[in-house]
Amino acid sequence: PLPGDPRGVQGPGGPEEGLDQINTDLTEGFILSLNRVYDEGAGVLFNLTIDVLETKCHVISKKPWKKCEVKDVANVSVYGHCMASISVGKSVELRSYKCAIQQVPATVIVDTCPDCPTVVQLDDPILAETTNLILQKYNRMNRLPNYFTLLNYTASSSQWVVGPAYFVEFTIRETVCAKDTPDVDLTQCKMMDCEFAHKAFCTGSHTTLDDGTFQTKLPIEVKCKIFEPEVGIFHNSAITAMPHSNLSN
């Protein structure tokens, strides 16, 4: 079959269903969208190379990849490929997979969109400070009975607006600490370890107004979407993100 033709594998949606199952199995990062497909095999067993693009949907949303918008340059595009083994019969079974993804180089983003945000490394101290401020605000404003704590960073970027602006994306998880408990030290709150614990995907920003003489902190913006827990499907799998993170199942 020609590259990019998912109809090359005979059966009910071969590569598309294979990618659905890969996304279901992922526990970190963002849902991957199908770009092109190359396949080898005959009969019922196929080895696929699936070119993928990262979407704006976090994996905890469990949304189908066809309903997710692919990240553009302004969102720091991420691309890569998945090597997958599937069997195709009355249904498609994902036997194993391994994915490698990477961000579009910063130089390409700057050349394409000079005013777009640029990547901030996940180990930058400003990221922890920004995330902490955003999480504090969310814990104050949401109406759930327990505090949330940081689960994972997913992305960060910066841009000069009226001063340095930092944008972060991260996941949070419900803790055992109730909001009506006085003098809570959130760093000592354990995550709720049960299937009913809420998780959320958050985006937020923090901007400092800099007029050359004074620096003024502008209001923190935060938006979190809470998802109910769902039981995932386990496969023999791995995903590697280069160079900003390294994930494996």
From TrEMBL:
One example GO MF annotation: cysteine-type endopeptidase inhibitor activity
Annotated Pfam families: Cystatin (PF00031)
Keywords: Disulfide bond, Glycoprotein, Signal
SUPFAM superfamilies recorded: Cystatin/monellin
Residues making up the signal peptide according to the UniProt record: none
PROSITE patterns in UniProt: CYSTATIN_FETUIN_B
InterPro entries: Cystatin_dom, Cystatin_Fetuin_B, Cystatin_sf, Kininogen_Fetuin_HRG
Domain of life per record: Eukaryota
PANTHER family: FETUIN (PTHR13814), FETUIN-B PRECURSOR (PTHR13814:SF17)
GO cellular component, one term: extracellular region
The protein's name: Fetuin-B
Region listing for Disordered, in residue ranges: 1-20
Keyword Signal in annotation: yes
Residue intervals of the Cystatin fetuin-B-type domain: 111-225
Record flagged with keyword Transmembrane: no
